[in-house]
Amino acid sequence: MSVAVLPEIAEAESPAGPLVAQLKGLVVSLERRGVRSEILHGVDLDIAKGEILGVVGQSGSGKSVLATTLLGLLPASSKPIIEGAALVGEVDMAHASEAVRRQVRREHLGAVFQNPMTSLNPTMRVGKQVAEAAWTKDAEEAITLMNRVAIPQPAERLSSFPHQLSGGLRQRVMVAMAIADNPDLIIADEPTTALDTTVQAQVLATLKGMRDTIGCSIILITHDLGVAAQVADRIAVIYSGSIVELGTSRQVLEEPQHEYTKGLLASRLTLTTKKPPSRAPKPVAEVDTTGMSAKAAQKALEQARAKLRRPIVEMVDLTCTFKVKGPAGRLVDLNALRGVTTRVYDGQSMAIVGESGSGKSTLLRAVAGLETKIGGDLIKPAQAEIQMVFQDAGASLTPWLRTESILRERLRGIGREQQDRMIAETLERVGLPQEIMHARPKEMSGGQCQRVALARATIIPPKVLLCDEPTSALDVTLAGIILNLIRDLQSELNMTVMFVTHDLAVARFVADRIAVMYLGRLVEVGPVEEVTRNPRHPYTRALLEAVPGAGIKLATVRGEAPSPVNPPTGCAYHPRCVFARPECAAGDIGTVLARVSDEQHGPLVHEVACPHYADLKPMEVVK
What we know:
Blueprint: E1 19-32, E2 35-48, E3 52-56, H1 63-71, E4 81-88, E5 91-92, H2 98-108, E6 109-112, H3 116-119, H4 126-133, H5 139-148, H6 154-157, H7 167-178, E7 185-189, H8 197-214, E8 217-222, H9 225-231, E9 234-239, E10 242-248, H10 249-254, H11 259-267, H12 294-308, E11 311-325, E12 331-345, E13 349-353, H13 360-368, E14 374-379, E15 386-389, H14 393-396, H15 403-408, H16 416-429, H17 446-458, E16 464-468, H18 476-493, E17 496-501, H19 504-510, E18 513-518, E19 521-527, H20 528-533, H21 538-545, E20 594-597, E21 606-608
Parallel strand pairs: 3-8, 3-9, 6-7, 7-8, 13-17, 13-18, 15-16, 16-17
Antiparallel strand pairs: 1-2, 1-4, 4-5, 9-10, 11-12, 11-14, 18-19, 19-21, 20-21
């Protein structure tokens, strides 16, 4: 497949100024299980000094192979065959000796990968790892580097192991290591994919700040055009190993030329994406009684009220506490849930949003019956009527079982003929071919694994379907397909859905109601459009402002979330809140949801745990 060069944006293909890297007719083929495949097909790219280039495409498009080739890190086990050149300065990283490539990586390149836990040494303290990257044993040098990437209290973090840091802090440690030798080029391969929107914004701001501070260039590889557009000067769109569009961020976002780029943009969820109509019970005010007699109208309204007031899951002052090792090695209490009170209504979809560590997944696991050390009251259907879909579908499926066996596990006690019919109907419902019955998880893509997980959960329709970040590791196209599938399944099977996500744009698309969590407590609950367009809690507003988009100022939440081992008094968000007042740290302020609107609609009431919500001015919705 040849490279598509678009005349309308040709001026963007040759950046001004000296080049730090070039790809010239790069062709890469790799071998896997004896089968050779061409991954990149004649890629040409110039990276100018001081620019941020976004490389955007779906999973399998060749983004990571491009980055790995430029780093000179293609695995020998894949027997790479490379044509063309991948130049860093004057050195061709595709064909240079390993000694030369190692020297170039040390002196001119930095790398930040998707999962810092696989890049950082889990047995070594982070301070030592940062110091090693700077070729020194000086702790002060490590502190300086950690300061440069905005790691709070770096001196105290020197002795931490990677697992003791949050995802955002681990990624910033990786950035500190990447800039240790003042590289000419940093290659960031999906550095924010699994992060919350607020932490993502912090990491992106850190990368952009490094470009401005040390003058390095950055290649930002991502599947999200909105993420790339927020920090990149130019965007290269890659499809099936070829660059199909190249231009400035604004050109690619506002005037896309290639159909694939248009498809990526159409797949991306924003806070203004048109969503399908909800199948949840309508508010009483929306019940059409036109042409009814007074008695019939009264009966219709009473039925609507009954549906709205029929909770299927109810939590009252729900708590969950774990024992974890403290700084001195002693066991201390970690308060994952700190008095959660809410209802989920029959037929409704509720999204639970918040940063990592807010308690979202713990709440879902409590409803699923996977957490036993809980306090308070939890009313829910029988265990057999609740099913859960996890974030990593591949890991949640039994690796040695074929799809057919995975599905038959839930059909024990049912005749073989009926099992065959139910499996065929379920695979068709989730959009999978019958041939997938013979595949094991490792032989399927991420999207296929997630569909199999949904098929397993819904082959016997549950009353409540629990979804824990089921799309966070998928590219935007696959994520959109899975979200639409979940909505369709909810409607077709008449299920109630509880959906955990860190992305408010996803929450808005999939849910009727949103519950925002912070440090084990609910801080805002309400109708999805009301919460996303008129947020009443400063934390909800911060989450919305962190949603990426072209031309949107990169907003970051200040500071790090406090530890649930020692949460702040009063409103837990007050140390990070730009609207905080002295009284916010006292007493029970911010600990209880209070009604801010009374629409007499049961589940559509808007509640907030902030007494100063009226001071928040309306915000612009991110497009």
